Amino acid sequence: MLFEHNRVPPGNHFLGDSGYPCKPYLLTPFLRPQPGPQANYNMVHKRTRIIVERGIGQLKRRFHVLHGEVRVSPAKTYRIVGACAILHNICKARNIEIPADIDNLDEVVYAAEDDPLPFAFPAAAHQAGLPYRDAFANIHFK
Q: Which part of the chain is the DDE Tnp4 domain (predicted)?
């Protein structure tokens, strides 16, 4: 909602996989990238998603409330995730280790790009941000 109502500073984006609709605030990869800006964009998009997913993985390992579906309102979810992130940073600053009670702590599980989402977006929703993504790639990834 914050992005859709222009309440987030310009230049901030979410990164989503190809199952999500491309919007000016939600950047998805090109399905068949052309050499040049599109291929460069996809490469950086993928690397950035991996870094973010690893960070989220650390939060999930430290705070079990984030392992599954958080069954509260979006506003409360935002506060819970924010509090976990703040506490995680305090733990890192004080060298408090992530609990080792879960197997394969360094393993990050990635969904396949073509895995269906548990819900479907209308076809038109997938098209809304395509011109923005094209311009974004051409400007920033030449």
A: 7-89
Residue 2 covered by a domain: no
| HSE, side-chain direction, 13 A CA sphere, residue 93 | 6
Task: Answer for the pair 27, 38: CB distance below 8 angstroms, yes or no.
Answer: no
Domains in the chain, number: 1
Least confident of 4-18, 61-75, 101-115: 101-115
110 inside domain: no
In a domain, residue 36? The reply is: yes
Retrieve residue 14's tokens: 């979410």
- What string of DSSP letters covers 45-62? HHHHHHHHHHHHHHHHHH
Q: Evaluate whether residue 27 is within a structural domain.
A: yes
How far is CA 58 from its chain centroid? 14
Residues constituting the chain: 142
Is the separation of the CB atoms in 91 and 62 below 8 Å?
Answer: yes
In angstroms, the first-to-last Cα distance of the chain is: 31
For the chain, where are the alpha helices, taking DSSP H only? 37-62, 74-93, 123-127, 130-140
